[in-house]
């Protein structure tokens, strides 16, 4: 779900996770009712979303959102930036 990149450029505000540009496109296609994507560099960041991002982060976000992925689904960690992994 969330990118494990060192320097991601995008974030899902409501999911509390940082994502790469490729994953940000996928999240945008899901719709804003699922994932609200913002640029870390191009968008304004009021204090509230910053607090959410600090409180959740990718490790916690992945543990929550990947919890419903069946164990037999193979690799539970999404391989970011690869078209076949989406």
Can you give a write-up of this model?
With 86 residues, the chain is of the alpha+beta class. It has a single domain, classed as Arf GTPase activating protein (Annexin V, domain 1), CATH 1.10.220. Helix content is 33%, strand content 10%. The protein contains 3 helices and 3 strands. The protein has helices at 21-30, 47-55, 57-65; strands spanning 10-12, 17-19, 37-39. It has a 3-stranded antiparallel beta sheet. A hairpin with a 4-residue loop joins strand 1 and strand 2. The longest helix is centred in the first third of the chain and has 10 residues, at 21-30. The protein is globular and about 40 Å long. Residues 82-86 have low confidence and may be disordered. GO terms for molecular function: GTPase activator activity; GTPase activity; zinc ion binding. This is Arf-GAP domain-containing protein. Keywords: Metal-binding, Zinc, Zinc-finger. InterPro entries: Arf-GAP_GTPase_ANK_PH, ARFGAP/RecO, ArfGAP_dom, ArfGAP_dom_sf. It comes from Protopolystoma xenopodis.
Short description:
With 86 residues, the protein is α+β, with helices and mostly antiparallel strands. The chain contains three helices and three strands.
